[in-house]
Amino acid sequence: MEIQHKELAWQAFAKQENLNEDELAQFKLYYEQLVTYNDDVNLTRITQLDEVLAYHFRDSLSVCHALPFNEIQSIADIGSGAGFPSIPLKIKYPHLRVTIIEVSGKRIAFLQRIVDMLGLQHVTLCQQDWRTFLRQHTNPVDYFFARASLAIPELLRVFKPSSHYRLSTLVYWASDQWQPAEDEIPFMQKSFPYTVGIKQRKLVFFVNPH
User: Fold this and answer.
1) Residues 181-210 pLDDT 10s
2) Which helix (H) or strand (E) holds 26?
3) H helix intervals, the chain
4) How many domains does one find in the chain?
5) Is the pLDDT at 94 greater than 60, yes or no?
6) β-pairing, 143-146 with 188-196?
7) What's the CA gap between 133 and 36, in Å, rounded?
8) Domain extent at residue 163
9) pLDDT of res. 143
10) What pTM was computed for the model?
């Protein structure tokens, strides 16, 4: 019965996210590796399949309903951790050029393993903190994604006059109760509400106001 439940959960996920068989197989392998290496690498407290599907995979893909990904060329994932949201997005949209920013060497090693096992192309792994990345990199990024990583004031450094990425867009995963501080309001472009599992959340879009 347990095996049947898991397969039904996978099939429901594939249908909801419009995944083909190859993409679903990649998500399954990703999940297997996540559970296998979680204790050694400290990847996530969420390991049960239903919860991973909802609060990691679907939550990562929630941005697909807010942006025209077929028209987007490049994204970057700030403080990626176990690869959320960048790896799910790369599986669903293989044309994307993805930059993953993660300071932990163990997590970078895990992400490199995932990239290799899933055969993902055009993925750049940067073992750096956010400020160092902004100082040293100039590779194209249309959208920066931040999901459960840094605080807003730190993320908004992307819009400093000295930043190569000051004209990019920053998307922040937030609870539905989140409200911007007064000095963050000028950068806020819009928000996109969504539901994942039993939680109400929203994506908040930030742009350079100048």
Assistant:
1) 999 999 999 999 999 989 999 999 999 998
2) helix 21-41
3) 2-17, 21-41, 49-52, 59-61, 86-92, 105-118, 130-136, 152-155
4) 1
5) yes
6) unpaired
7) 30
8) 2-206
9) 98
10) 0.95
